[in-house]
């Protein structure tokens, strides 16, 4: 099985590294900027790089994975020429199969790895859930065979369910990371070392995997400790954006407690 990679950003970078490690042949890497494609393919020889979406003029791949921005999917798909019978799949958690409706020829699908990717940080693909959808049974089977080369957690997931999963992932990953950044900023303003919070963060996450998080919620909002809450709000008077976050999350915790 041969793969083509469309894109050169974070997801594309980790897909290329993951496929190489898994022994999957990469036939072609595309980027709008040829030098970016060359840089991505530079670790190994023999990979065709291109800034053209006419893949009929490149070594043939069985599956083309589109790791491009969500808003660019329809435009890029409409410009692609792929070999007959090839599968073209995007890697988005929110976009439907219909985002690739402009594709001429080929079957379409979704190959969505549920992970946060940064070029600087290596990931372990075997533990990353890969969510799949195909326009045909044949496309799904091809994507499933490819995904199983990378991961032990491969799931067939239709568009509406995938959108719900992506929404949950934003809360679990993006918002959590942002709040950790807020916490670090507060410490830095007070000239305190950020590593003081690391054991607390680790314990919080480990506990959240062992128990339903709402059932092990702690802190002043959960206890109804309004004097501490007011003291915190006073400290946040010079940080209005963080004060608003504090008030909204405190209210959410209190609302959840009342439902229990």
Automatic annotation (TrEMBL):
Residues 128-253 form the DUF2520 domain. InterPro entries: 6-PGluconate_DH-like_C_sf (IPR008927), DUF2520 (IPR018931), NAD(P)-bd_dom_sf (IPR036291), P5C_Rdtase_cat_N (IPR028939), TM1727-like_C_sf (IPR037108). Residues 2-88 form the Pyrroline-5-carboxylate reductase catalytic N-terminal domain. PANTHER family: CONSERVED HYPOTHETICAL ALANINE AND LEUCINE RICH PROTEIN (PTHR40459). This is DUF2520 domain-containing protein. It comes from Rufibacter immobilis.
